[in-house]
Specification:
Two copies of one chain form a homodimer. Chain A is of the alpha/beta class. Chain A contains eleven helices and 13 strands. Chain A starts with a strand and ends in a 7-residue tail after the last helix.
Chain lengths: ~300, ~300
Amino acid sequence: MSLISVGTMAFDAIETPFGKINQIVGGSGTYVAYAASNFVKPVQQISIVGFDFPQEEMEELRKRGVHLDGVVVVPDKKSFFWSGRYHEDMNSRDTLITDLNVLADFDPHIPDSYQGAEFLMLGNLAPKIQLNVIQEMKKRPKLIAMDTMNFWMESAMNDLKIVLKYVDMLIINDAEARQLTGMFSLVKAARSILQMGPQYLIIKKGEHGALLFHGDEVFFAPALPLEDVFDPTGAGDTFAGGFMGHLAKSGDISFENMKRGIIVGSAMASFCVEKFGPTRLKEITAADITGRIQQFKELVSFEIELV
Amino acid sequence: MSLISVGTMAFDAIETPFGKINQIVGGSGTYVAYAASNFVKPVQQISIVGFDFPQEEMEELRKRGVHLDGVVVVPDKKSFFWSGRYHEDMNSRDTLITDLNVLADFDPHIPDSYQGAEFLMLGNLAPKIQLNVIQEMKKRPKLIAMDTMNFWMESAMNDLKIVLKYVDMLIINDAEARQLTGMFSLVKAARSILQMGPQYLIIKKGEHGALLFHGDEVFFAPALPLEDVFDPTGAGDTFAGGFMGHLAKSGDISFENMKRGIIVGSAMASFCVEKFGPTRLKEITAADITGRIQQFKELVSFEIELV
């Protein structure tokens, strides 16, 4: 099985209560690739970078089985740059700078070598771009998942509603689910979103875990209680990468297997937040991941007799 | 096994985005008794009420196996009254009125008929009062749990630190855990509290579930995702009542059984929030409770192979 990941590869500058870093690689596609490549090969990356994106980073990704045929390198422009500062509770952040640079011209296409992929993860991009990518696939993938954000709800809601009809799963956070539906109750918001097209919905709640909805079924996975969240940047994309990587590894899109995927995604996200950017994701081993998943089992497992 | 519950029995006036009620019975002891009496008999209540507290309410509690020998009725004063208004997110509320009335004279004693109880739940009261109750017990209970709040941290921190050395378990919410320790990370706060006396700690996170800490072990139970939280008043006390009721029923204070207790408490709290005050707690049957616990199992259960 293979997984196509469409998303940004970028530079970030990050400030948290624990420290500050002026330049580190980031972007949704980067996090998805680092997370998913632990489970499935190849991850077929679609993105755009400038002349300044480090060759070593490309090499690092290649070594992990990430294909880069779909990554356009623009020789005379800089990579996308985002800078942000987190508040003390780590649940909210201020965006300080957004320099689109190469991202302004991003017009992703599916390389021939990627055709036939069974899984497609559409990172947070303009809904029209997401739809174009779907329509370029000659054979419909087994599962198409997408992310989006408040910006597109405010500027391109009609396009967003169209692309939602073409995907199987939407992966968003709680604030986005509320904004998309105008409903405060996440259970009501979920029911409304499942009427918009996707059959599956994941609502990410950051340190409060994630919910999976499908029909009348619901599954919840907590976030691991950590001593400190050092840097939450990329945790949501890492979650999505772990989730999709697990599904693509097994080829199994049953609800039962999606539950496992949520646990795998939560485990990957719990590593991501331990250091700046994707640093920790590059260090961890298969044994680390297995150990972390075991911690999740212990965190929520209980035996109870129902009489 | 029997459970002594020390707490308020009162009147509340409640305003939520869904409606308003000018007078309904409330108080921590009331909620603990309604929740716990589903699992253990007798619940031995210690409280104080005024001339205005309804006889029918007393009768209702008696019918459920709640002993009232320890409930003082003051013939010439009114019952404790609290009035509050919830914000739209239901996680925060403004206290509008607090009329202590009889509560100003509350000096609880253990009736002889209650001596020998194996479980003791100390509701949120002045730490000195909590300590007095503990010291009146001729035989130390198998498990003593207590609640507290920010008011006592600000006005009686020394007393609070003393009583903490006499209890086995503290049950508080996330904001209180942070205030008690001055630590933002709940994992760090928990470690700090477990140095203060209690061997067990439950941190309640409202709609985001509850954490149980003991030594290096941690267990998490989510709150049930509900369409609407109609009225959160008493949910925390109901949780504590369900938890202690389950422990007292089985007499088992192992960590494994506490996990089950947390699930039972969460199930009871999920009923509590469905209607004003304790209304819903009076309606539910054993079958309702079993069904709700089954929902919790389904919400978090997953099977994953670790290789």
